[in-house]
Task: inverse folding
């Protein structure tokens, strides 16, 4: 009963924030709904970026990686720092202050069919990757409350649906900031309570469980993580409407540039915070002779349910819900902007229409969440799904903004290049069993090569005529 009281108190806090921001009547101009009138400074945008990218998968799976002393993932975070500095210096200028979506900015005056095809591609893979993250958050709620998975999924989706529908992008960002602080505080509390539970100091427990983490680093894996993390983050934090919205929403281009850079360092800190929980768990397991036999995604979930007191397990449940809801609210807002701005070319949207599209998107997320139950590693599944399309979007957008004259952007070349990119990802990941980090590195070059060859063919035909 106390656990439910804590969670519903959190939902009540969200309701207060919602009604503070609520606007009545018809939807305002799309710019207000999807960009918050470009009224944010760099700090809330930075925290919103981190809250959006940090899902329940991150909070539950990073401790499991730390438990297995798999600290090579830090190289991905370092690659992400380089990527976001690159975005701030060279890429923000192409999209800030122009159109309301990155798709519309890249294809403002031509190639309408190509734009719509890319929007559909982005939406499909976004739903798949976020549906996996939704499942991770719902599993802990289902376990702690002893309710069905469907009930926990429905509670999270309905709560997110309510404040996203009634509040718009400004409420999304403000709730993201609140949710960021909740899951960071939860991580800090874990660092205090696990040593307390073991009867050892933090330092001695860390030495017991994490003393050899740097000795286990593989130089090949670290290098691949660095390069793969750079390309993956370049695509997910620039060539993605979800994050592009936050770049659009800054009060100035400088504020947006600062937001993307600052978010990289905050993200690195959050990653280390939860990764190091795993080292404390490793020390605890050795000290207490505890064998964690659960699958990687469920080890920390099991520890929360079995070893944390009710108040702390409830706080972690709220943190997991907060991370999940932050991911879902941003996805709903981004996909709605794609549907109404890019596919339907609307500048004003009624509340009922937004309700219908959001409801359909939630149904798709629910279907994906049930499908993902069979996966042994939800964390990898979420990253792998996103990596299949990220390189395609990155290549096309960079080419469209930087080298438009030497690449073809007609529908047929884009479809062919995307199919070849998918073919490589399928072969590399499922047949050759390579790391998924190769996908965002190799895919952009496949796409650029195909688009370049088609452009040369077009030029050759024009000369023949």
Result:
């Amino acid at each position: 009963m106390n656990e439910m009281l804590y969670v519903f108190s959190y939902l009540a806090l969200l309701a207060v924030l919602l009604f503070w921001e609520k606007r009545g009547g018809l939807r305002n101009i799309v710019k207000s709904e999807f960009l918050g009138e470009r009224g944010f400074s760099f700090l809330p945008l930075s925290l919103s970026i981190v809250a959006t990218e940090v899902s329940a998968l991150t909070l539950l799976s990073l401790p499991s990686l730390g438990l297995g002393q798999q600290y090579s993932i830090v190289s991905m975070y370092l690659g992400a720092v380089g990527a976001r500095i690159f975005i701030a210096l060279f890429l923000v200028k192409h999209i800030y202050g122009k159109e309301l979506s990155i798709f519309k900015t890249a294809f403002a005056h031509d190639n309408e069919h190509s734009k719509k095809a890319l929007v559909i591609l982005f939406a499909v893979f976004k739903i798949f990757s976020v549906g996996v993250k939704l499942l991770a958050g719902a599993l802990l709620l289902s376990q702690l409350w002893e309710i069905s998975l469907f009930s926990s999924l429905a509670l999270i989706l309905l709560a997110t649906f309510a404040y996203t529908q009634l509040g718009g992008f400004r409420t999304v960002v403000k709730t993201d900031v609140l949710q960021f602080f909740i899951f960071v505080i939860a991580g800090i509390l874990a660092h205090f309570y696990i040593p307390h539970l073991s009867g050892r100091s933090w330092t001695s427990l860390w030495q017991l469980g994490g003393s050899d983490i740097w000795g286990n680093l593989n130089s090949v894996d670290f290098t691949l993580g660095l390069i793969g993390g750079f390309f993956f983050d370049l695509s997910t934090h620039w060539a993605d409407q979800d994050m592009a919205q936050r770049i659009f929403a800054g009060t100035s281009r400088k504020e947006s540039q600062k937001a993307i850079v600052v978010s990289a360092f905050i993200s690195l800190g959050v990653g280390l915070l939860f990764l190091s929980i795993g080292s404390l768990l490793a020390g605890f397991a050795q000290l207490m002779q505890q064998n964690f036999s659960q699958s990687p995604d469920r080890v920390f979930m099991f520890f929360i349910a079995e070893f944390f007191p009710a108040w702390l397990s409830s706080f972690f449940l709220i943190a997991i819900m907060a991370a999940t809801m932050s991911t879902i609210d941003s996805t709903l807002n981004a996909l709605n902007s794609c549907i109404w701005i890019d596919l339907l070319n609307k500048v004003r949207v009624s509340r009922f229409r937004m309700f219908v599209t959001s409801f359909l998107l939630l149904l798709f997320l629910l279907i994906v969440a049930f499908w993902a139950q069979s996966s042994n590693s939800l964390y990898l599944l979420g990253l792998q799904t996103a990596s299949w399309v990220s390189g395609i979007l990155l290549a096309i957008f960079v080419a469209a903004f930087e080298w438009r004259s030497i690449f073809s952007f007609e529908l047929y070349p884009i479809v062919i290049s995307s199919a070849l990119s998918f073919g490589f990802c399928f072969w590399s990941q499922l047949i050759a069993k390579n790391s998924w980090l190769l996908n965002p590195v190799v895919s952009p070059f496949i796409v650029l090569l195909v688009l370049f060859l088609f452009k040369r063919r077009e030029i050759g035909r024009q000369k023949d005529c």
Notes: The chain is about 80% helix and 0% strand.
